[in-house]
Amino acid sequence: MQLDNLSHLAVFTAVARHGSFRKAAAELALSASAVSYAVRTLEDRLGVGLFNRTTRSVALTEAGKHLLERLQPALGGVSLALEEMNLFRASPAGTLRINSSRDAAVMVVGPLIQRYLEAYPDISLDIVSEDGLVDIVERGFDLGIRYEEHVPEDMIAVPVWGPQRFVVVGSPAYLKQHGVPRHPDDLARHHCVRYRFPRGNIYKWELGKGDIRLEVDVPGRLSVGDSQLGLRAALDGVALTFLPEFRLLPYIEAGQLVRVLEDWCPPSTGLMMYYPRQRRMSSALRAFVDMARMPAENPN
Asked: Coiled-coil stretches, from where to where (predicted)?
């Protein structure tokens, strides 16, 4: 079999797995037109249609289903063989693409960059940090790092940082003008920063005391998709904000921000690394996970 046939078959299986040319392109780091061309070329060579396409969906034909069933074990063996070649290398190699929340970038990724790159000189890192929920498979990332409650259930998750405490804070000027909230219900009469996920839904502040757990849809004239903007708004006296305590401590200690509702801010979940369950770990990914993994005896 010619090498280009093999690459076209890999593209075919990616489209079949995702049911989408766009998602397959993201996984393979190709353009959608390149993916479409590869599938069309394969169909022309085989003389059969492999997908039924509409403007809204992509579905396998009977011929496509048969081909996929026969291909999956074979291509899995090829992937394993290529990965095993790394056993003959002095060290892992390749590019590792990581998508993390901004908190995870500060706490986990940043401190590891120098040590990781020095330990594995044949690996390159491609890191994107952004708040909100991200489909790492669709976006072509190898690894995600986020708080536990935001990790998709179908992913393999590995603890990387212990429970964090989110706190409500405001500037002294804001609290002097608007008063200090004593109960979560009081937030209804305050200006609060509303955090918006990429898909448009608004994050509800997660507060609690004892056995009571609340998800508060706070009011506010400012909605942001970047937690750094929320912090800036609090410092400027625009609104109350709700962020991880470790990010706020320098401003609290300097008197620029004041904690409120402290007894309603219990520890939250910790940070998790996660990656697709069905994807075989590359040597670059395995090396990073092993280095970043949280020791059981050191939860923080």
From this structure: none
For residues 195 and 227, the answer to whether their CB atoms sit within 8 Å is: yes
How many CA atoms within 13 Å lie on the side-chain side of 63? 10
Distance CA(45)–CA(26), nearest Å, equals 25
Q: Are 239 and 224 in contact (CB under 8 A)?
A: no
Enumerate the domain spans of the chain: 3-86, 89-156+271-292, 166-264
Percent residues over pLDDT 70 in the chain? 89
Confidence of residue 296 (pLDDT cuts 50, 70, 90): very low
Residue 190 burial class via C-beta count within 10 angstroms: exposed 0-12, middle 13-18, buried 19 and up: buried
Which top CATH class is 166-264? Answer: alpha beta
Q: Which residue has the tokens 């004593």?
A: 182
Identify whether the C-beta of residue 115 lies closer than 8 Å to the C-beta of residue 291.
Answer: yes
Q: Are 287 and 293 in contact (CB under 8 A)?
A: no
* pLDDT for res 3: 47
Closest C-alpha to 27, from 274, 287, 19: 19
Looking at every residue in the chain, the average pLDDT score rounds to 86
The answer to whether domain 3-86 and domain 166-264 are alike in fold is no
For residues 153-179, average pLDDT = 92
Reply yes or no on domain 89-156+271-292 having CATH 3.40.190.10.
yes
Q: What is the CATH number of domain 3-86?
A: 1.10.10.10
At 261, the pLDDT band (50, 70, 90 cuts) reads very high
Q: What stretches of 149-295 show up as alpha helix (H) in DSSP?
A: 172-178, 227-235, 245-253, 283-292
- Please choose, from the candidates 210, 169, 219, 214, the residue with its C-alpha nearest in 3D space to the C-alpha of residue 191: 219
